[in-house]
Amino acid sequence: MSFSKRVLVLLPAETRHKALLQQSAPECRFLYSTYRDVTREQVQDAQIIIGNPPADYVKNSPNLEWLHCHSAGVDSFLKEDVLPKGTALTNSTGAYGLAVSEHLLGMLLEIIKRLHTYRDAQKLHLWQGQGKVKSIYQSTVLVIGLGDIGGEFARKVKALGAYVIGLRRTCAEKPDYVDEIHLAADLDSLLPRADIVAICLPATKETNRLFSRERLALLKEGAVLLNASRGTLIDTEALCDALESGHLFGAGLDVTDPEPLPKDHRLWEIPSAVVTPHISGLYHLPETLERVVRIAAENLRLYANGEPLNNYVDFTTGYRKKK
Amino acid sequence: MSFSKRVLVLLPAETRHKALLQQSAPECRFLYSTYRDVTREQVQDAQIIIGNPPADYVKNSPNLEWLHCHSAGVDSFLKEDVLPKGTALTNSTGAYGLAVSEHLLGMLLEIIKRLHTYRDAQKLHLWQGQGKVKSIYQSTVLVIGLGDIGGEFARKVKALGAYVIGLRRTCAEKPDYVDEIHLAADLDSLLPRADIVAICLPATKETNRLFSRERLALLKEGAVLLNASRGTLIDTEALCDALESGHLFGAGLDVTDPEPLPKDHRLWEIPSAVVTPHISGLYHLPETLERVVRIAAENLRLYANGEPLNNYVDFTTGYRKKK
Q1: Are residue A171 and residue A67 in the same domain, yes or no?
Q2: Of A113, A234, B43, B174, which has the highest C-beta tally within 10 A?
Q3: B251 lies in the same domain as B117
């Protein structure tokens, strides 16, 4: 019954985090490093990796059995020939709902209350109204993807009095935190109804450029678009046009395409665009790291005991598998 | 049973609003104007005023029976010798809870998610993390004043997972949207417990400079202070010091003292201060005007029918009277 593996941990683990992980599989040998410092050799030697190594370091690893990503998005490991055949892949769904949904809510309020332009005015010492604002209360919010992040965001805006429409890939009963539930196929008919649209989908082949120029045109005049998924889900140039023309009231983007956004990209300067540098899911919120470690430790315990893992990612869809 | 009065309305009333007011008291004569355009003569001639005239115009009015303010705060009419003796004074409590509480929530998230510094970075085309953030979830929020605005704000942060402590002037049962209720006398013992403090009190003699240098020092290291009341409730210089020293994580101020904030005031430049120019309760949110008109129309109907008015302000306390 001995379970002795070489586990590489790429997390900013503090002593109590290390203790938690080691308790889950006491006979394993743990090596702690970081994305920046870890070597190809260390990655190739590991049987289990917790955290996200540089994708090209894992290629053709002779030892890797299981990669547990610290992230919710695992798109860089879904590409062909990155993970050795048969490698188990799990993610940290459940760790990011809090941090990302609060960040999304903050960007949303920043846009609809014009707090970004009030900030600009403050820098100029300008005591001056910036015009009409909108409310979350009684607005219609379309949440695309009801996973950890989308579900948490839907709960929040519903609690603040919005009418919430949820969109899911697969058939499911309506959760109590949305007012309507629809399938992905209904997207185009729902877009014109929404005052606020939040994209909370994983990046897969199917979701690439989901928000094409044509789909952006379906959004209601004066709508607000939020993206907490991946920048590649939106046609950036078409979005810039929709913002500059005034078709959209604003966009809150924690992710962009390309990323990082180049210094001279037009998006930086669009007054109604609020851009943050893909940080809502980092460890800037201490609770996020706590959750990542708890999820990893539990999965390690399951793996050591030969039990089915949580948060298995289905390679064909890029979505989490139902356990 | 005829009720024929001269009613001066100082609201940006559209046709449907005028119809609503006139339905409430069909025999009255209505004059519509604005704060800027109204003359002293028109104010002195009115028997009923709906909206806020320049305070010195109402002094010694021989005709004024009732002033219904469009605002929640009525401090400028509470000063001695402003209103003729015996004038009834009512306010528009109930109209501002939505707009101001959403604005407060936006400023709070802007501060704790560092969206203001991300905005500054965006202006510089800088793709760069700005450091640790905080969450509303599991934070302790002290809401001082549970009127329309404080109550709405308390509901919102509670729905977002905060532990909410409410502070009231008078004894009352705990509403279900707070976790604890306390009386004003407990303020000093509660300040060190709160991660977030929201001031939602009317401006009265008692609340003037409530947040003195000594009280600001009682706040927890790293706390966030929000003010949606009046700037005069806080010692501005002491607040600037508490922000600059890093004792406070940030402050969200829709009101300042003095107001407007002078061009060369140090508060403008403090990185952790978010200042908006007393706009959260204006008609920037269209729903606010709808509510103001509904409240006024209902009160006018009550007045015309000789029934007790809603939202009577007690001159001695500056608070709303229980009906």
Answers
A1: no
A2: A113
A3: yes
Same domain, B259 and B133: yes
Residue with the two structure tokens 């941090």: A99
Same domain, A103 and A86: no
CATH code: domain of residue B82: 3.40.50.720
What ipTM describes this predicted complex? Answer: 0.94
Contacts of B99 in chain A (CB under 8 A): 133, 135
pLDDT bin (cut points 50, 70, 90) of residue A1 is low
For residues B89 and B238, state if they share a domain. Answer: no
Determine the distance in angstroms separating the CA of A31 from the nearest CA of chain B, rounded to an integer. Answer: 26
Closest among B235, B169, B158, B176 to B202, alpha carbons compared: B169
Total domains, chain B: 2
Q: What is the pLDDT of residues B158-175, one digit of tens each?
A: 999 999 999 998 877 899
Nearest to B160 among A134, A138, A156 (CB): A156
Residue of A132, A256, A284, A289 to mutate, testing the B interface (most B Cβ within 10 Å of its Cβ): A284
Q: Number of helices (H) and strands (E), helices first, in chain A? A: 11, 12
Residue A209 lies in a domain: yes
Q: Quick one: average pLDDT of A161-177? A: 91
Work out the pLDDT band at A317, boundaries 50, 70, 90: confident
- Does residue A321 lie within any of the structural domains? no
Q: What is the mean pLDDT of residues A282-310?
A: 95
Compute the mean pLDDT over every residue in chain A, rounded to the nearest whole number: 95
Q: Give the pLDDT score at A21.
A: 97
Mean pLDDT of A182-199: 97
Q: Is the residue at B312 inside a domain?
A: no
Distance CA A279, CA A159 (A): 25
User: Are residues B224 and B195 in contact, defined by beta-carbon separation less than 8 angstroms?
Assistant: yes
Q: B268 and B139: one domain?
A: yes
Which residues in chain A are closer than 8 Å to B260, comparing Cβ atoms?
A: 127
Q: Which domain holds residue B184?
A: 97-275
Q: B192, B218 in Cβ contact below 8 A?
A: yes
Question: Which strands form A48-51's sheet, in the order they lie side by side?
Answer: A29-32, A6-10, A48-51, A66-68, A88-90
Find, among B138, B149, B142, the residue nearest to B166 by Cα.
B142
CB atoms within 10 A of CB A321: 14
Does A241 fall in a domain? Answer: yes
pLDDT band at A85 (very low <50, low <70, confident <90, very high): confident
pLDDT band at A323, cuts 50/70/90?
low
> Nearest-CA neighbor of A102 among A279, A272, A233, A256?
A279
Distance from CA of B287 to the nearest CA of A (A): 9
Mutate to test the interface with A, among B104, B116, B119 (most CBs of A within 10 A): B119
Among B101, B128, B133, the strongest candidate for a mutation testing the A interface, having the largest count of A CBs within 10 A, is: B133
Structure confidence by residue, pLDDT tens digits, B212-268: 999 999 999 999 999 999 999 999 999 999 999 999 999 999 999 999 999 999 999
Contact B132 A284 (CB under 8 A): yes
**A102 contact residues in B (CB cutoff 8 A):** 109, 113, 135-137, 160
Q: How far is A272 from chain B (nearest CA, A)?
A: 11
Nearest CA in chain B to A272: B119
Question: pLDDT at position B322, please?
Answer: 67
Same domain for B123 and B271, yes or no, is: yes
Range B198-212 average pLDDT = 93
Q: Are residues A60 and A14 in the same domain?
A: yes
